[in-house]
Fold this protein.
Amino acid sequence: MSIIRIETLGCRLNQIESESIAHFFSEKAFSVRMDSVTAGEAADSETLLCIVNTCAVTLKAEQKARRIIRLLLKKHPRALIVVTGCYAQLSASEIEKLDERIVVVGGQIKSRLTELPGLLKACADDDNETEGAGSRIEALKNGVISLVKAKPIVKKNIAEDSFKLSTSSFIAHSRASLKIQDGCNNNCSFCAIHLARGKSVSIDVQTAIDRVVELERAGHSEVVLTSVNIAQYRGKYGDGYCNFTQLLKLLLEKTKTISFRISSIYPEIIDDDFCTIIRDKRVRPSFHISVQSGSDKILELMNRHYKACEVLAAVEKLKSAKTSAFISCDIITGFPAETDDDFEQTLDLCRKCNFTWIHAFPFSERPGTAACSIKPKVPQSISGDRAKKITELAIKNKIEYIEAFIGKELELVLEPPEQKSTVSEQEKVQTGKYHGMTENFIHCELEQSKELEQAVALEQSTETAVVKNRTVKVMITEVLKDRITKGGDIEAKARIIK
């Protein structure tokens, strides 16, 4: 069977787009791998195509993309490497220089990758009648280049179909996702994503409803609503438009059992109407807020349209509407002109909000953004130290948050057993340890029990789409403090209860 490999870097939006690309290949009987390439695995001559879906949020993300591309070139000598995503959109020529077997498909025309399965099948058939891999790679490369150069498809003044990439089956993720918005109309001084993904576009309301209903019918118990800037959702509905809160209300009305998780929100979306809707039990009690700083001076330099006091008010509203919710945020440390006092204001806001988790990272200058010209620059050593202080607070908060749920009943989406690589890295073997995520975003390893065996037996009698979305009742028994401190994925132990 012909093998396709897909590597994904970056946000949840990239992940759902990669899953959708994988779906199109699976429909055409290709075998799809979505595990990350490793230096220890042996070379493979069976893989025909590798797709790398890249991120450009930081310099490190771009460096990681280049490392993975080089590794794929080495491990798959007969494969064409197609690079897409935000980094590909912004730095195509830089990527193409890495090797002749690389072709770049800009992130804004990523939907054209849905045409690759048919193109690859034609090239694979020709491979049997020609000189072999070299001619196939060249033919496939020329075909992809033709896709890239094709005239843009314009619908209602929107170039390309931003929402063509959609699927109801998932390979690498236990929870379903639906992209409802793309692009951004903001011009935050530190961010290049609006340059990579373009202006804000939204899926129309009826299409969103239809796709969620399809996911529910397929057996999914939860869907993550993904976007670049959910506050800019403006979906066509009848003769008018809906904002995100109105969309969520309609999705709840048109479905019966599926739960909704919101990937990321901005402070300005958290108003009384939003808080009324999220009180519904089918809206998961976990929220990630894009905060970035607690200093009004820095927020203004970032071109963010809120103040620190508004962030605090928004968090208090959330906690009132959804008690005991997992609330996380992003913080950039060392933004140009950030003083010690500015940082202390950020640290103070994080303490007052008592965020369950804080993703703190040092400022990374993005070419073409306004922040490049803001001075003075903060030394990397200081930026790193500030990020470390924020992370120490985040670790403390997360441990305390999970400890408060020991002995309490929670819903958990059960995932397949953990896997580990064999010595040769050629195969994955099951460890027998099942894990999953609770309704409030706690990643748990499940203890062996009769109840777990019964749940697993039920899973094995169902279809794959349902296997990855089985919801069970659990009780947290232990907080894995060491793993949390070291940044591990699993944060607690839990057992299934009747």
